[in-house]
Amino acid sequence: MPLTLATTTPGEPEIFASLQGEGPSLGRPSTFVRLSRCNLACEWCDTAYTWRFTGDNRFHRDAMAFERRENQVVMEEAELAARIAALEPDRLVITGGEPLLQGAALARMVTALNTARPGMHVEMETNSTVAPHPALDLLVHQYNVSPKLAHSGNPASLALLPERLAAWAADGRAFFKFVIAEEADLAEVMALKDAYAIPGNRLFLMPEGRSSDVIRRRSEWLADFCAANGLRFTDRLHIHLWGDTRGT
Q: What is the Cα–Cα distance from 94 to 154, expressed in whole angstroms?
C-alpha cells in the first residue's frame, strides 16, 4: 500500500536532508519525510498544507486552503525507502501531518529501509492521539510527542486522550514537546505533567512562532520558566536559519 506524502512543489515529495530544528535531537543532521493528512487542526499550524485542503472548513488563522493535487503525492513504500537510503544522514525523522495515521505502511517502509540502509535511527513525530501500529512500534527509536493545548483550537476530547498520554508517559522513548504561545499556557502543561507523571527531563517547552522575532520574544520568559521548573527548552532552529519554508 503506498504512502501519502506532502510536497515541496507540485509533484515533488517532501523528502530532504537538513538539521533537526526542535526537541531532543536539535542540531543533528537528519533526513526528513513529511506525510500528508492530520486528524487535528491547530489554528497556528505551520504545515497546514498537509491537511487544510480546499473544502475543509476546519479553522486556521491564515484562512488558507490548499489544492490537494498540488500538495499531496503518493509513493510506493520501496521507492520511499530507496530515496531515504540515498541521502547522507543516518537519522530519519518522520513527520506530518500525523504520521501514525499511516502506521502499517510506514512499518513496511522502515523494514525495507533497514534492509537497504541498516542502522538508521528512526524518530517519529506525533500529536499524541494515535497509537503506533504494533509492527511500526518495534522499529522506532524515539517518539517526539506534541500534545496540543487549548490555544491550538482543538477540543481536549480530541487532542488530549488520557489513555494515550499515559502510554506515552510510560514509554522511555517518548519525549514530550509542548508548543507555548502565552504564559497562561504554562499552567496547562504543569497540570498535564503532574497528572501523567511526565519526567521533566523528557518534557520540552517550545515557543510558538513562524518568525525569529516572535520566537525570540517568547523565548525570553519561556526559558526562564524551564530553568526554574526543571524542564527542557527547545528553540526552532530551522526557522532562524531558513525561515518558515518547506523542505527545511
A: 23
Sequence-separated (6 or more) residues with CB below 8 Å from residue 38: 45, 50, 51, 96, 97, 98, 101, 127
| 3-class SS of residue 94 | strand
226 is in an annotated binding site: no
Q: Is 19 among the annotated ligand-binding positions? A: yes
Summarize pLDDT for 162-214 with one digit per residue, the tens: 999 999 999 999 999 999 999 999 999 999 999 999 999 999 999 999 999 99
247 in a labelled binding site: no
139: left (phi over 0), alpha (psi -120 to 50) or beta: alpha
Q: Which domains does the chain have, with CATH numbers?
A: 3-175 (3.20.20)
Please state, in angstroms and rounded to a whole number, the distance separating the CA atoms of residues 149 and 130.
16
pTM: 0.97
Percent of the chain with pLDDT over 90: 99
Question: CA-to-CA distance for 120 and 113, rounded, in angstroms?
Answer: 8
Q: Is 103 annotated as a binding residue?
A: no
30 is in an annotated binding site: no
Query: Is 146 assigned a ligand-binding role in the annotation?
Result: yes
3-state helix, strand and coil shares in percent for the chain, rounded to the nearest 5: 40, 25, 40
Whether 18 has a binding-site annotation, put simply, is no
Torsion of CA 6, 124, 126, 27, to 10 degrees: -90
Residue 185's φ and ψ, nearest 5 degrees, are -70, -20
